[in-house]
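hey so u asked for the seq, here:
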Amino acid sequence: MSVDPALRTAALASKAWPYEEARRVLKRFPQGKPGGAPVLFETGYGPSGLPHIGTFNEVLRTTMVRRALEEMADMPTRLVAFSDDMDGLRKVPDNVPNQAMLAEHLGKPLTRIPDPFGKYESFAHHNNAMLREFLDRFGFEYEFVSSTTMYEGGQFDEALKGVLRNYQGIMDIMLPTLRAERAATYSPVLPVSPKSGIVLQVPVTVVDAEAGLVSFEDEGETITQSILGGQAKLQWKVDWAMRWVALGVDYEMYGKDLTDSGIQSGKIAQVLGGRKPEGLIYEMFLDEKGEKISKSKGNGLSLEEWLSYGTEESLAFYAYREPKSAKQLHLGVIPRAVDEYFQFRGSYAGQEIEKKLGNPVHHIHNGPGGSNVPADVPPVTFGLLLNLAGVMGPHATAPQVWGYLGNYVPDATAATHPELANLINLALAYNRDHVAPTLQRRKAEGIEIEALKRLDAELAPLPADAPAEDIQNIVYEIGKTGGFENLRDWFKALYETLLGSSAGPRMGSFIALYGIANTRKLIAEALA
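ran it, structure tokens below
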């Protein structure tokens, strides 16, 4: 893409993490990749369970590094999304149907197991399709590559022969890392049984490396079989290294839990005549209990769940922030992510170029020079919409919300504010499913009673269209002079008595949106 010289200069100096990562690729190829070949970025996906946000996160972050590199240098690039769908199914995931059927196929390659959802030709095809559908929806530019296709189509055959040629060298790397019991049966090559179709975890003997032949025991019988053309796959650390070499991968990031694996695979790549890619080692997403998210457990958020309650951009924003810090990933983080994304977007246009490159929205909307960053933001926050939906109850509708918005944003409609219309629908869904069941407004007590009476009295003479800032000044003054130890206690009392929550919005904005008359009714209920 054509890059403005000022942008390129700023990109080369930027400390934002995508540029720091891209700088490592530049150091690897200071004169560009030999022969003008594209720099190859790769992300890996294990389709043994339904895709979760951690999977999407890798593609998103890798794309951000890819775009940063393109802003820094005139190098062609490619991104491969690789599915390890030749893996044998080790256990039945908890969150899929027809588990008894899947149990009958344990050990077989994922592409040779029926789809428990009954929609695709295999379990892997189903999960691959879910991943691709989301990546396509988000507009990623990538090439999807199936491990099964590469193995069965012979594209890995030469690399597999290389594994047999260097069999002992690979064993010398792997055996010291294994427990004695595991080392006794370990093999870099996993033949597919011609009898059961299972990916076998058995020792093998190299018969003829150039022909791709090995021998192994299968149900008491010694079998000599080719490992080419999909008749075997590799142990995954060896598979990872072989793939780096066979495809020529230059950059791949992975989670902290794979740090040691990355070291072993890097050594194996060298034995195979290649080189370990550059890559960021990121911290893992955790669930609400602080436990690692697992596809098989299904204890994280699915892509669909986030998008049921938050925007695509908020998901990208959450993934961008601090990749080397562990973060919890659950429904409770969505509202803040939505609003923080819009805060950064609102400041982008007025920033100097250096600041823009450190703004998350520059990397989320990764068009040339940030040209895809929308210029405006919705007139109300997602948090404010949630509070409005909260007082309206679980059966509130979008037309009712638009009615209240007339107090705050004159003449606003879904046609004139489509992004706001989407936020309203998301807020209603989030409130209905996760907020309304927990809301419980309490009665005012102690000094709160007089403070609320004073607020009611000062709201009474105001016109219906009183500015939010004027209302906020009234609220603030009551908090300062109403006998509270600090303002936080006053605002907490307002949230708990009027909204039924321990936290809430800027009250001046809420009252302007909900309406003075309606707010006075809430006060009356709190004082009743």
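DSSP finds 24 helices and twelve strands in the chain. Residues 53-72 form the longest helix (20 residues).
lmk if thats what u needed
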